[in-house]
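Researcher: Last one for today. Full complex below.
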Amino acid sequence: MRPGANVTSGLAYEEPLIFELSRPGRVGYSLPASDVPAVDPAEVLGADHVRSDDPVLPELSEVDVVRHFTRLSTWNAAVDLGLYPLGSCTMKYNPRVNEKLARLPGFAGGHPLQPAALSQGFLELMVELENQLAEVSGMDRVSLQPAAGAQGELAGIMMIRAYHEQRGEHRSVVLVPDSAHGTNPASAALNSYDVETIPSGDDGILHPDAVSRAMTPEVAGIMLTNPNTLGLFEEHVARICEIVHAKGGLVYGDGANLNALMGIARPGDLGIDVMHFNLHKTFSTPHGGGGPGSGPVGVKNLLAPFLPVPMVRRLADSEGGGFGLDYEFPHSIGRLHGNFGNVGMFVRAFAYLRSLGPNGLRRCSEMAVLNANYLLARLRDVYHVAYDRPVMHECVLSDRNLEPTGITTMDVAKRLIDYGYHPPTIYFPLIVHGAIMIEPTESESLEGLDRFVETLRAIEREAREEPQLVRDAPHRTPHSRLDETRAARHPVLRWQPD
Amino acid sequence: MADYDLPDECLYTEHDEWVRMEMDGARLVVGITDYAQQELGDIVYVELPSVAEEVRDGQPFGVIESVKAVSDLYSPATGTVVAVNEVLADRPELVNEDCYGEGWLVAIEGVDAEVLDSLMDANAYRKYVASRAE
Amino acid sequence: MSDRDRYIPHTPDEVAHMLETIGAKSIDALFEPIPDELRLDRPLDLPAALSEQELTAELTALAARNANTDSHDWFLGAGTYAHFSPSAVDALIQRGEFLTAYTPYQAEISQGTLQAVFEWQTMMASLTGTEVANASMYDGASATAEAALMAMRLTRRSRVVLSAGLHPHYAEVVKSYLGGLDAVIEVAGLGEDGRSADLAGAIDEQTACLVVQRPNFFGCVEDLAGAAEAAHASGALLVVVVTESLSLALLPPPGALGADIVCGEAQSFGVPMSFGGPHVGFLATDQKRVRQMPGRLAGETVDSHGKRGFVLTLSTREQHIRRERATSNICTNQGLCLLTATIYLSLLGRVGLRRLAELNLAKAEYAKGRIRETPGLGLRYAAPTFNEFVVTVPDSAGRALERALAEGCVGGLDLAPHAPDLGPALLVCTTELASRDAIDRLVGALGAGAP
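Model: Here's the assembly. Have a good evening.
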């Protein structure tokens, strides 16, 4: 019933909204005594320019606040608690030393507009990180500015558009495989491109003839994810890039799945012209419950003139040496972020790269791929495998074998929660009905994988023998299944006092 | 295949809308079929055109959403919107509960009657649904 | 095994066992799907791995080469603000359950994150005087661009008017975001007192929105009611941008003055400056416009036993469902930073936040008083300010900043690149971190250039 005893019962707290805890008169802050004369805001600002209502903020002691958020935290699953096998999200371990280093006053206490002469350590770190990402990916230049993968995609497509425009060409279509992440077509649409979907072959990968058919002079480029969202390496990537390039198009690489390739193969060598990195996936910066991410964008030299500004570079001795900002990109797509991007994530990713070095990075990819193939090998006799081929860093199962029991992917996912696991990515990619997309990452040990396998096998047995148990899961969480329909029909998006 | 309620007095479109003639064919009332509402699941939001807006045959005139899916609504004919079901703004669930009655979407007038010849009757639509399930 | 694999648990025996289970001869064999000619035939050319001790030494050395709020007295703001943050904030966000969780798609095991997001939405809606705040944007600049896009969708118009008092980097980001669309961007003028002027004249029937920042880039508190009137007279929306969110505790909520969308940066609420990121953008509006809003939203609901809980809702607006027709391509946002701000706002609370804002105002008024009485220095604009203002200096901004630095002060922003017409001028910010002694030293240093 409880394979490997991944969880046992523990303390489970109830906790109201913070506003409901408020007790007038309590304080959770301490301000220094003012060393300047007090002023009357109405006199300084004018009576019309002073707020007359009280914002909805609680009044609580520090103890109340610490307990509130600590209790809330206990309702979350997290990488620090155990396997978090969300496909395409690369939920690997987030090293603690990275947290400590990002908090050094010289990083956390610096200002984006302070003079370059007072920021040399920070600027050097940016240049070094750019260079290392360029080496890992085989791209020529990297901008760290995009704040997340989707903004990196936006930057990439903007550069593709600027490239064609500069050549006097007005292309209107971007090709996107049917297995792509939703951000791909959304990023293309933000650039006024029409999106044409390219079907994957029966073997789950793209075929040159499908791309060839779609590759008209109207096509600005194609967006590839490699390995793709089925965890399969796009074997024909080089040929596909040739076809696109021959017709004047460019190739965008979605770097979400780079964790499969570090030190093994480089997107730049495969023919990719522009790609984004997800520092919060491949390079271990924490996901933080939905960000901050960081989505640097890398380009081949032909797109370098279009990079977002400012760039950072090492100055020649004749320029005084050291590091400085560089705005000399006349064809730049401009600025995408108010400052340099999510700098705190640069520090963490840089620390990660320096901790692992070339051999460690390669070993990450090797063990990530080993783990995914091991799971596949141990689960394929029980769960239907959408495309049963050697996979890279993730594998996609489905609920097809469970059909006679009436148990769906959603039920399996929710039942996994009872056993202490965060569910895999489900119902994605869209081309697999009832997809269960598992990415174990290199962080998971053999015994951890075995326990997970036993759990998934036990759920399959439960689906046959006690389907209601699975259908009603989760049973052991503070909340049972939540009514999403009610939330969407009658949206309640803030707390209001009675 | 599941059994769907497909009233004989309605005509059906390939986009899974039903059409009912009122006022001797001068007015068309449009909704989504029982098949469509079951496929979408719990409807949470319906976006409809304004009264007096022109709609065109085969073109989207609105959007219907469940929790996890979005679907365009396509006009069965060219004409002018004369009424929309305002109640759905607060009670989108009516589309699930009573798709041919209280869950109607829009009424259109000024339609060229010949357009209706291309629509399916209940039997043809039932076959059409079955053919897609295969 | 070397200690350099400390993040990877596999032992050689385990690897061998796993390969056998898979039926692969070697690790290399696992990569057979990658054609040989596409494989990298050499090790990556990266520096060798460091131990944790070596790493700490290397990064500590890099960090030591950066001026920061510990090493200097701080008067530089301009969109990123030096505030004190209670220790409990950083301690709580380092709970692994918050730090190492993903976006809360699986609601039953993400209630901690979801409830915190709902609390954030409540606080930000209230502070901005609106009904709905989303679960954060990347930063204030991209939030402003998304607000302009949202206004274009809502009005089906394509002209965007930016106030000259909008942060110049925000204006640049708006231009980049709208560059791929059929949009026209114009900039309205700045009046002699430092506030936007002649807004009505800049707005026509094609204008989707007017974008006004309060306090504006020059620190001046704009007249939002007047801006709302000008925008609404032509059917345009008013977008109000806030870069110093602490001002919301003291200034009337923009929503109450007619703002249709309020967006900006909440970094001031406990988020480290960190050279400009990660910070936390926000975007808020009223319920009737929520369908056109970008970004994630947490909503209240009940579980199957009727117990209150929270889920991500109205997701059909988003890219993972609507794909190319989504309201935005945004996916990951700034989750941990919104948590930071929520904890900070909980600790400061209703009373503390107001007192802190009043303290910032008092520091600025003291500094402005000292500047007025110092020969050679002047206050460029007459409009009221919050904690930031423009100081004219006698010689050059660069030399004035050097003198300040010699006194241990990072003295403000040289405005020459942003507003060349101003002559030698600095944008100076005084938060609660600026002591009276430091303010006196700064003013003395800036004024020392007078003949």
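The longest helix of chain B spans residues 122-133. Helices of chain B lie at 34-40, 94-97, 122-133.
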